[in-house]
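Example pasted here:
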Amino acid sequence: MDQGVRHQLYSWAHQAQESGQLTQLRDVQQIWQTFGTLLDEYVTILGDQVAPTEQPGQLVAEFADLMNTGFNAGRYAQIPSTLDQVLVSESGMIQDNQRKVLFIMGETDDVMPEVKASEGLLSDPDRELLKRGLNDDQFLPISGTDQINNEPFLNYLSMLSVTERLYMSAPLMSSDDIELTLSPYLKGLARHFNQWDDQNNAPTTDLPDRPNPRASEDDVWSFVAAPAVTMGNLIEVERLSKDTGRKLTSAWRDVARALTRHDEGLTGRLNDIRDGQYAKNEAVPLQPELAARLYTTNRQGQVTNQLTASISQLEKFYQNPYDYFLRYGLHLKKRDELEVSSDKSGTLNHDALAFFVQSVIDEPDLQLADLVKEEHQGRQAELIDQAFEQAMNQQEELRELAANNSRVNLQLQVAKQLITTMAKTLCLQATQTDAQPVAVEKAFGQADWTGESQAAELPALTFDLTGAGLGEGAKVSLRGRIDRLDELKLGEQTYQLVVDYKSYNKAFDLVDAYAGQALQMLAYLNALQAANPGEQLLGSLYLRLYVPTVDAGKEGTAEELKEHLYQGITINDDAVLAALDHGLGEKGATLLSIKKKSKKDTSRFKVSADDQFSAKAGSNLVSPTDLKRLMDHNAELIKEAAVQILQGQNEIRPYRRQVGTTAETGLAFSDFLDVSRFDQALDDYKEIELTDADVEAKFEQEEE
């Protein structure tokens, strides 16, 4: 029975071919081929069976179901071979010459020609010598020189494998924001077609650099491509239009309508991006009552109206108030990871050096300088080992990690080497100074925090906030722990010196100290002064904990000492400085970052009182009067921060300061960037524009 199916399919195929609809033509061909295959399989499987005559309708229904199932299970090609195809391959591979359009991407000078380093044992001259002794059936792999010589031909073959159009492109910047250079092939072709500007060493182009709100229709076409790319250009030009007040031309409006005309999903995405252009994550200030509950509730659940904090917490507030709110108000914290973090390794180093120095303090007949002597080398090694074990006992988690993780075990071995180096350095430094350590891990204010007073603990650094509109009894109480406290006796005077250990090269920055980003060292001096008002303060110094690279044979000498110079702030008394660092006489400083004064050293905070010495970068020399002024200013900064915290200040406004070519910001070490969502293009920084000269000028104005 002929139902005209084949005739109808042929008719559809002919119509599709005449109208150039190759996809529809291919569909008809595939349907007819699938139908024929199904009939062949039907005959093969069921051809010998006799159909029942009682119910012919049921037979037809079963046959129809079988055909439908077969068509649904059939496999159909989506892209006919006669239509366009996109092939992706490397330029060095052999290509056929059937491609109409070719895109060569990534044409930079490090890949075209490709830079190939010789990794073999033999150099190219060695290969030439060996080739002379080889038989005809013997050969060596191609040399690096031959590979380089073949590079142009491989790339030229790629360029010639196209019949109609060749597009070549190269990125200007890498993913690491490193500037890239164009391939010499690209430059050569640009010169050949007069599209290279030798004066500017760049290709000439008639395309606009960026979308223009007032662009004509022809210019707009340069920014129309795939929907995602076009959307990006449209958003950029709309943003530019809003910022500059220039209205969009009708051509851009047509692009916007075309993007959203037939795709609701694209419309929603475009609107979301538009809404987000000027969205800001603005923090709502806390009510003072809520701030008091968040920050002044003690362990018994009572609101005390007393802010108990550490110095580093207030530094965090000056770096970014919102980070302070998240960390110490909402108590958010970074997820713990199974690793030796910088905090854990830093605690280990501090504890080990504290145990080492304390063991020497506890022996009346032993000083650090004695451990340098040959007869005490065994004792020195014994004390170092004991100190490391005591420090490890304080961190059982690290010990467990090391027992089950080879990488952590190696990290602890490196930590042991650092502690050994620094312990020996402390002994060597003790031979060059009259100062002696009298305490380690000197705590102040810990009882206000833990509820338990420690032996020889100093009282908290406390300031009354009455009159700041915070209610009765408002105050701030600071706690801290001084890594090492030294004393220098000179005549009848005894000076106290604060030493703080750092795992990085930390300098005393006068501007940071004056603006609030670095409160620690001056706050330590304030705590000592508050506990013992009659004490003479020498200053505060940083000591970097690390293993320097020293020439062989110079270990334990003055050369190694110069790799561990102290940086910080000290009084400018020449006699005190000479007693603190014996090398300041003729050899040059062996402990302090100080040098002999030159004529160009004139800064108020850099020159000693008798004009003998001047401080290097990272250190400052100040008069006792100026040190007291800095400490008083530090106290005012502490009170100001406490008042703002208790008043509910929590704005998202990190500081930013330009130091040389580097911009320092309060976001550098933030754990909550995903929460604050600070937009550097839209949100405001708290700009720190002070300089050392500005701080010096302020001091001179106060004197007047």
